[in-house]
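Lab notes, practical 5.
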Amino acid sequence: MESKNKAVVRVGSRKSELALIQTNFVIDCLKKVYPEKEFQIVSMTTLGDRILNVSLPKIGEKSLFTKDLEDALRNDAVDFVVHSLKDLPTTLPDGLAIGAVFEREDPRDALVLREELKSQTLETLPAGSVIGTSSLRRTAQLRGSYPHLSVIDVRGNLNTRLKKLDAPTKDYSALLLAYSGLQRMGWSSRISKILPCSEIMYAVGQGALAVECRSDNDEILNMLAPFNHPETYCRVLAERSFLKTLGGGCSAPVGVSTKLKPLDSQFKLTIDGAVWSMDGTTKIHQVLEQVLPQIKKTEKHKLSPTEETNCKKLKREENGNSPKGQSAVEELNRRISEGQGHLNCEPTVSPDEVDNSKKYRIFCGLSENGNIPLEVIESCDNLGKSLANTLISKGALEVMKVTQDYIRSSAAQKS
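Output from the prediction step:
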């Protein structure tokens, strides 16, 4: 039973280095606003972490990296959990909700080439070069645009995947990874190219951190509310609404791209969504736009790749900037405490502005963002639905069914 205004807050996290970096970042943001609270990390492995010899879609579970953490939430073993938003299904278990989405990092994918191939691009790599990815979305786009390349499944955390890329056996020529993960690990120097959305569209929610909690835990919901970033919220809600209506997930090649830009005294939200066949030769896509009323305006993202920044990027030990033996988590904590963190963690509103009596509605798993007018939230939700229904009218479900049948058939043959 939760105690009111309790001083100790238990935070669930996966055990991977990246997950702990992300969890420590969220905790550090909260500490600045709630210094009287003590945050304790409860780390655990998930099904997706434990099964590494099977491709993600063939495992057949919808919550590979979240179920164990969500079980801990529902059992009151933790008070909230930090996730990469792209890992969270668009429909959450009853009684759970996303209390906040923090300001989004660059959501695009990054190409990481072997050192001796650094001068190459996807287009110029020799025929038969092996690209490693565990994503059907990336696989389909690579096969459609670069048929001369061989796309092979690669599993494991970022550390493991990069070790496989660097191995003397040269099994892989390159990896496709999320830019945000590499950035958070301090490995942006490994990136050969950040891929534009015209080349590779990204996953729904990619680049954003989500904090999941119990939907009846008003104390935690109110604690998180000031960090629920309005611009990020609008974009990821449209994306999640699109995917939910489409009925996709890790078992279908689905990609998106969203933009939210000022338009006089209003904003224009643009969403581009697509579905591919497994071989990438069939692509069904559409772009829709919605003009929104003025929403709470925040500073432009401090680490847009096209901008200069006063925040120093987290560097790894090989750069010589970390004390010997210091982990990336410890280094990140030190740098955030010195104002050098790689994300903006300022609250969107003051905690005093949060309406503690408010009961939050749920949109695709996201709790209602009190910093945004309800009609704006509903417009973002409806925009995603409209995009999905447009693709469905063009035959998207038929394309997705072929992929899902192929995955089920492959899984049955291996079992």
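Observations recorded by the TA: The longest strand covers residues 266-276. Residues 374-393 form the longest helix (20 residues).
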